[in-house]
Amino acid sequence: MAIHITMTTDVLARSRFVVSPAHEVVSAVRLRGRHPAPHARAWYELAACRMDRGLLAVLEALVPDEHDYVSDFLAPPPEPGDTIARQAARIAGTDPAVVDYHLDIGLRGRAVRPGVAAMHGDAARYERWRRPVPPVLAELVACGPEVVARTAAEAVLAFFEAGVACDWPDVAALLAEDIRRRGELVAARGAVAALTSLGPGLTWNGDGVSLARRFEGTVGWAREGLLFVPVTAHDGPVRFTAEEPYTPMLVYRPDGIARLWERQVPPDPAPALAELVGSTRAQLLMVLDEPLSTRDLSRRYHWSEPTVSYHLKVLERSRLVAAERRGRWVLYRQTPLGEQLLGPCEP
Questions:
Q1: Where does the chain cross the membrane (predicted)?
Q2: Domain span at residue 68?
Q3: Among 23, 207, 322, 337, which has the highest number of CB atoms less than 10 A from its own CB?
Q4: Assessment of whether the complete model's pTM goes beyond 0.90
């Protein structure tokens, strides 16, 4: 059984890659603290500690951990340059009829949409597939689909800010690299090669794309190709989302996500430099030949953020590093004095 997305190779060639912060949130929440990727587990643990418990309960009710359907309005089709704030605004503004439709698909006891039921073969099988309505979600649904959409947007944004935001620069860089590499594959071998590289169960059959699933269905409105969405917190096979008239999405896990939790070894300082300023401060000074935040340094090396912050303040007071605010981040870098100090002390 499979989902079939009909298109020609010319239409497939119109496909494009886009980044979606909201998909990172949904994928991290889906497996809670059991996610196989350490960075996704860390996001969930941070969010569970920092965000409002009521909002987290709503998000968990909307993103079940033991069911394979998540309401698509929680992660709308991403647009180029999307931020989590822009996506949250689109979630909040979801058409109430769309919210109801998405809730109907996966929740037992709600209206049965004939087209969805037909994909499962018969009504009884479809009803067994649907899940009970969690109490916290039942209370929210009673307030109307507009309230569901606004609360969902607030919850997605809160989870991102509490758990994902601190790592987002690294995530965005990794996603950009994956997109660049697959773009080179398109240029060298064509769009079909890029498509089939996204993961198993995804095939090109000459007149479209087939994606192995437990139900049958056909998508005939992919007139502008597909949206390929790399998500570092995605686990499992390529995930498919399609709501007419929007361009269908294929969510996949990019290569190289281990970089998000692996730590680098800081360089060994020259003995004279270590004796003068201390070993940790010497190492910090050496790696600050590029602007980095305390979070960057903590994740990249084996230091806690309080340790990094303490030593950076000492180096800053000594005028060996300087701080510069860029948006929400404070970045540190060697000063000319720091560079001069490094020079004579090198072996």
A1: none
A2: 2-259
A3: 23
A4: no
